[in-house]
Amino acid sequence: MSQATPADPTSRPRLWPAALAAIGGGGAVIIGTFLPWMTLFAGLYEYPGITGLNGWLVLAGGVLAVVAGGWLLLRPGPIPGHLTGLLGLTLLGWSLWLVVQQRALLEELLVHHPMTAAGLGPGLLVVACGAFLVALTPLLRLARW
Fold first, then answer.
1. pTM score, two decimals?
2. Sign of torsion over alpha carbons 50, 96, 93, 75
3. Looking at the domain assignment, is residue 77 inside a domain?
4. Contact 114, 31 (CB under 8 A)
């Protein structure tokens, strides 16, 4: 008996969880860029991620994650899985760095300009959760279902 290779159609069901994680995580990253990252004046003004350059770059990363998930389904192999995981780790690191920077900005606004009533929006945390899901892709690819 021969072992099932990644290109073998019988091994394709194992790729579904990894591909869905990449596509779903990339979709969450995309949605997170359109959600507010910061609010001012108790929610009167909302600033989504696509307001600035970082948001647009994170959006591009989310689109790449969705494309990589589709690539993983169409061309199973180690390279798409590892590249998707590397993209997920990059997005996760970047989004966590942005969360830290956002918290520092919020603290400065609340200390020096308390009348702005600044607050955090959910967008950047949604981006971080989606990036974490994309980063899990190589591990889900190796799991025995």
1. 0.84
2. negative
3. yes
4. no
Domain, as residue range, for 42: 13-142
If one counts the domains in the chain, the total is 1
Q: What is the mean pLDDT for each group of 10 consecutive residues in the chain (145 residues)?
A: 50 74 95 94 90 94 94 81 90 95 93 90 95 90 65
Nearest to 45 by CA among 54, 36, 53: 36
Burial of 114 (0-12, 13-18, 19+ CB in 10 A): exposed
Structure tokens at 135: 């980063």
Tokens found for residue 9? 């159609």
94 located within any domain:
yes
Distance CA 20, CA 14 (A): 11
Q: Answer yes or no: is 30 within a domain.
A: yes
The reply to whether 7 falls in a domain is no
43: left (phi over 0), alpha (psi -120 to 50) or beta: left
Q: Of 28, 14, 60, 36, give the one whose Cα is nearest residue 134.
A: 28
